[in-house]
Amino acid sequence: MSILIKNIKQLIQVHENSILIVKGEDMKTLPVIENAYLYIQDDTIVEYGTMDFCEGMDAETVIDATGKIVLPSWCDSHTHIVYAGNRVSEFVDRINGLSYAEIANRGGGILNSAKQLQNTSEDDLYNQSIKRLDEMIAMGTGAVEIKTGYGLTIDAELKMLKVIKRIKQDSLAKIAPTLLAAHAIPSEYRKDKSAYIDKIINELIPKASALRVAKYIDVFCEKGYFSVEDTEKILKAGKKYNLIPKIHVNQFNILGGVKLGVDHNALSVDHLEELNEDDIEALRDSDTMPVALPGCSYFLEIPYTPARQIIDAGLPLAIATDYNPGSTPSGNMNFIVSSACIKLKMTPEEAINAATINGAYAMGFSNMYGSITRGKKANIIITKPMDSYAEIPYAFGHNPINTVIINGQVWT
Ligand SMILES: N=CN[C@@H](CCC(=O)O)C(=O)O
Ligand SMILES: [Zn+2]
Question: How far apart are CA 76 and CA 132, in angstroms?
Fold first, then answer.
């Protein structure tokens, strides 16, 4: 199967040589070819260039992209899309004045989602979750990290992993699976958190690893959830099974989780709504990607991650949705790219770098995703007609997408 996209107004994020990450000042650059073509064979980007070199070229499917922008699909490196039901009633409670923490303390929040998930069959959970993923693909996302963390029992966490495994097998999207059993303390362990941690370490991690699906390990390192010491214990246990850390840190409080993540070679440290100079220093010269989740800040009305401070310090930054039922019930990366510009004061170039190549890095596969490079996977967005790529973040709330190609197939 071959696809030729021709007369492209701007082909963006083009890299002749495969790059893995973009940092600091370099994030301001987004390589563009004007009046371009792109040739896809099966699931792979094979060739591209200016239209001058397209003469005589043909393919089984030819798409005329006159007036349109073509770019790599969004890489969403932080989601919790496997969940059951929703938390609409908590949304209304918050409008009426309750805080996220007050709702959680009353047994709502993550524990509410866990109760719903425990009472949902694997098939039902799969159907609800893949529907969310399909909606994300239609909005331009081609690679997605998916976490567990709404099971909170051995059986329910394994059920989540099985669902993620099925999604990974069935979907055209690239999936990065993460074990986040340490997402909240189950009510039955309220008075004995260490017993739950022991269960994760001695029972769940070995069983999860036998399922051969989880690649990453996550912990919600936060007051009232898991301390830095708890987090370290779990990361060390994960390491024995080759699970790479990708952790929730600094959402509400600075506890030292960023440094811990860096010390344990975390692939990413996510949230960072609260951040200090020590965190920036810890990230300097590390291989750990900081990840901002502006949809969560928007929905919970908490501070936005200080992206300028991060990028201006010469660090890389990725942006992701955090799609989940409690703090971000949206998987729309177009909105995240807009929010990065409007609220995090990132330029369109920085936001697009953060949502493509750096998002792919934060999932460990920027060698195959996140840029227009020969040999990389053909996950492509073709926009509606627009004057420049800056209109993608500018027209917030609009759907900028005309066509999505995923794994070399036109998505319908
Ligand atoms: N902060 C921890 N986990 C999720 C929210 C979970 C929930 O409220 O269900 C997050 O990343 O925002
Ligand atoms: Zn999260």
Answer: 13
Q: Whose alpha carbon is nearest atom 8 of ligand 1?
A: 326
- For the stretch 254-311, pLDDT in tens is 999 999 999 999 999 999 999 999 999 999 999 999 999 999 999 999 999 999 999 9
183 assigned to a ligand binding site: yes
Instruction: Report yes or no: 5 and 331 within 8 Å, Cβ to Cβ.
Output: no
2-72+368-410: in CATH 1.10.3210.10: no
Predicted ipTM of the assembly: 0.97
- Structure letter (DSSP) for residue 384: P
The whole-model pTM stands at 0.98
Confirm or reject: Cβ of 339 under 6 Å from ligand 1.
no
Fold for 75-361, please state it: TIM Barrel (3.20.20)
Ligand 1 atom nearest the C-alpha of 150 is 9
Measuring from atom 11 of ligand 1, which residue has the nearest CA?
A: 322
Structure tokens at 380: 């492509």
User: Same CATH fold, 75-361 and 2-72+368-410?
Assistant: no
In this model, does residue 18 exceed pLDDT 90? no
Residues 375/337, Cβ–Cβ less than 8 Å? no
Q: pLDDT value at position 336?
A: 98
* 52-76 average pLDDT score: 97
Is the CB of 109 within 6 Å of ligand 1?
yes
Q: What distance in angstroms lies between residue 327's CA and the mean position of ligand 1's atoms? A: 6
Position 358 pLDDT exceeds 90? yes
Say what the pLDDT of residue 107 is. 87
Q: Domain limits of the chain?
A: 2-72+368-410, 75-361
Cβ of residue 110 lying under 6 Å from some atom of ligand 1: yes
Q: Is 327 marked as a binding-site residue?
A: yes
Rounded alpha-carbon distances, angstroms, from residue 150 to 84, 183, 403: 9, 8, 33
Of 79, 145, 248, the one to substitute when testing ligand 1's pocket (max ligand atoms within 8 A of C-beta) is 248
Give residues with Cβ within 8 angstroms of 190, minimum separation 6: none
